[in-house]
Amino acid sequence: DGFPATRLFNQGYSYTYDDVIFLPHYIDFSTDSVQLNTKLSRNINLSIPCVASPMDTVTEASMAVSMAALGGIGIIHSNNTASEQSSLIRSAKSHRIPFASTDIPFLSPDDSISSASVFNNSPCVFITNDKNNKNLLGVVDKLTWESLPDKEARISSYMQKNVVTLPNTCNLKDVAGYLTKKEMDFVPLVSGEGEVIDVVSKWDVERINGFPKTSGFPSVGENGEFLVGASIGTREKDKERLEHVVKAGANVIVIDSSQGNSIYQIEMIKYVKKTFPNLDVIGGNVVTMYQAQNLIQAGVDGLRVGMGSGSICTTQEVCAVGRGQATAVYKVSSVAAQSGVPVIADGGISNSGHIVKALTLGASTVMMGSFLAGSTEAPGAYTNQGGERVKKYRGMGSLEAMRKGSDARYLGDTAKMKIAQGVVGAVADKGSVLKFIPYTMHAVKQGFQDLGASSLYSAHDLLRSGVLRLEVRTGAAQVEGGVHGLVSYEKKSF
Ligand code: XMP
């Protein structure tokens, strides 16, 4: 019944996710037992298969922190100077878990606290003498301050001294265990130099534990810091950028190019591997087996797949090259798997079904732009557009983004004339990724359950061995598969 993938994808058609559909298989396990843990690249493990795209309207520090907290990862974009990108990486890595407030309040012992707004959503205010926030003298917790009769009193007269702190190398599990054991409401995390980096409260722990469970734990490195990726280009000056981002702590490098099979990229891959042999490097983008083989030979640890399938992309229209994303993911994954190189399905994800399809067709992770844009964590402010709260989302090949420097991705930085390969748009407010990604992952698990795949690895095996069967959907079948025949329907973004 149906077609095995090898037959379906070898008929000369370029299929997108919506063109194909899997036939259900056999269920002998619960949704919750589905494991979504995976690999971003040869040496980077993630507990959910989600990656935030290196775009300047998607991934800066806040997105990277939340994606890592969920068990995925964010790749900090490079449409900025090397030092701006490095400080975004540093800022993301200095956070332990998403903290409700971006600024931890610091005051001196001579100050007084006249209003609750000083707490800035933090459970406490930190008291230091030092402008670098080292040498913690004490804390004032909000509950103590609220019960204070004289709000004008100097902090030194009532602050709590001898504060217990934890090193910022502890992971969330350690901190949560400590708070429970000591029956404390919060604990500051300090660096080796004694600088207060963050504060974790029992409410933060509850908040994180209260999310619908994903398969695993936040993405943290051996030093307990969040894993963060960085994109770079293929120009000579990107070697300098590489030094900067590695120094700032980037855990993986993504070489950002719309057509990755080039002499420039191959040289850059070799350079990164030679200079930092222990750092994983992800190459791309590619859509064919030939492109993939070249980059694998050059030494990549991961491959990013997709050309023109992104929601803001016009590459296929402007340049007449690209490939339907379902076909591209299947074809590239089939060669990458032979070398143990994980594949990132980049672009074209607009619902959980697309994620199930990408992962089952051989990808190990999905990279998303528009799906994450418009969230609380995406850069930029919300604006009002026709009564709807929206955030800007733009292609990195749009003229507007290229004016800021991203033209190198489209090899247009040395050209006399810039040709747009993307557009500028807006995406409706979706709320926090901390809420909608766990929800989406649960839907993905249900998809895997219907396929009879209890993990990504088992889905890949079932596809390769021909157990999983697919078909192409006709136009009418696609209409039938969507909502139809109703007078009105409120469309949710996930
Ligand atoms: P989604 O569909 O998730 O796609 O919004 C995000 C991916 O699209 C790619 N990208 C572009 N492709 N012109 C293009 O042809 C552009 O201006 C552009 N900007 C981003 C990129 O791979 C991203 O991850």
From TrEMBL:
Residues 159-215 form the CBS domain. Keywords: CBS domain, GMP biosynthesis, Metal-binding, NAD, Oxidoreductase, Potassium, Purine biosynthesis. GO terms for biological process: GMP biosynthetic process; GTP biosynthetic process. Pathway: Purine metabolism; XMP biosynthesis via de novo pathway; XMP from IMP: step 1/1. The active site is at C313 (thioimidate intermediate), R409 (proton acceptor). GO terms for cellular component: cytoplasm. InterPro entries: Aldolase_TIM, CBS_dom, CBS_dom_sf, IMP_DH, IMP_DH/GMP_Rdtase_CS, IMP_DH_GMPRt. It catalyses: IMP + NAD(+) + H2O = XMP + NADH + H(+). Its cofactor is K(+). K(+) binds at G308, G310, C313. One of its GO terms (molecular function) is IMP dehydrogenase activity. SMART domains: IMPDH (SM01240). NAD(+) binds at D256, S257, S258, G306, M307, G308. Its EC number is 1.1.1.205. Belongs to the IMPDH/GMPR family. PANTHER family: INOSINE-5'-MONOPHOSPHATE DEHYDROGENASE, INOSINE-5-MONOPHOSPHATE DEHYDROGENASE RELATED. This is Inosine-5'-monophosphate dehydrogenase. The lineage of its organism: Eukaryota, Viridiplantae, Streptophyta, Embryophyta, Tracheophyta.
